[in-house]
Amino acid sequence: MADTCAMFSDDDLAATHVPAGAVGARPEFTDPLWRVRVRLNPVESALLRTEPLRRLHFVVHGGASALTTLQSYSRLEHTLGVLALVAHFRPTDAALRVAALLHDVGHLPLSHTFEGLAGLDHHAIGLRLLDGDPIRPVLAEHGIRPDAVTAALAEHPPAGLLSLDHLDSFVRSGRSGGWLETDPAALLRRLTLVGHAVSADAREDAAALVALVCAEARLHTSWNSVGPSAVVRGLAGRLLADSPVTPEQLARMTDHQFWSALDACAATRAETARLHYEPHRLRVTPEPGGGFALRKLYRSAPLLERRPLDESAPELSAELGALDGLPLEFRVSWSG
């Protein structure tokens, strides 16, 4: 079979924006959120055709909140968004571009929803995948050292500062949630990268980013997220206890496979159906020691004019500090 890429000429690509491609079949795509045109390197196209990257197309970024909201975009969409941001700011950094593609390959079904259960850690899983088939041979074939990618994956801005990974998450979530009030492409032109931290050129842009961070934190502590997340975490624990599924098998399922496993298990089938069709019956109450606790809230701050917010805009820093008052422990139950 002829290579699909041969079906398209450079003239074709120059003539129109190419929709974001999830399989690397064309050597260029336009990210739909940032409207950045990305010309894929050969190694990037090859990686997009591997099982670990393909799997991310079937894992929702928003986790269990996809059941009660329209936060239904995939981990792969976010991954391609991070690649677009790296291609915008650091287009020639081959290792960082590959790291952008591979940074989420270890995610569990429904992303963070039952992270930590049975010791499962998506960072550790991702590093193991990077060092094995089929990713390591693809990197070797294209002259990319795995240790260079591992080093790039470990590079983060100082604690509390906004990274490209979180920038894409907050803006993409804001679009899906309806609280994004600025044009992402226009915003991107007014951002710079200082080391690995995102810096806004103007106070209004820093304020827009802070508003997105705060909206995301409030989503994570809302009924829409806490209720289904608590139930799914309980269902995953029961699946491991009452079925032959092992933690390792669970970790590599897609969302579809996870739901199918829950449907097939007598101990989880009934509540799974209830979660799908009667989530409105969930009751969520903030309560210390209530049985469900959020692991953490992301409150990454942008720089403003290359300076920390507590120096350049202390009122914006205070808005992020106010997130400490949000509840992290809840009681979740069914009514009726």
UniProtKB/TrEMBL annotation:
One Pfam family of this chain: HD
Entry-linked SMART domains: HDc
Supply the InterPro entries for this chain: HD/PDEase_dom, HD_domain
Residue span(s) of domain HD/PDEase = 71-228
Give the residue range of the signal peptide: none
The name under which this protein is listed is HD/PDEase domain-containing protein
Protein's organism: Kitasatospora viridis
| Lineage per the UniProt record | Bacteria, Bacillati, Actinomycetota, Actinomycetes, Kitasatosporales
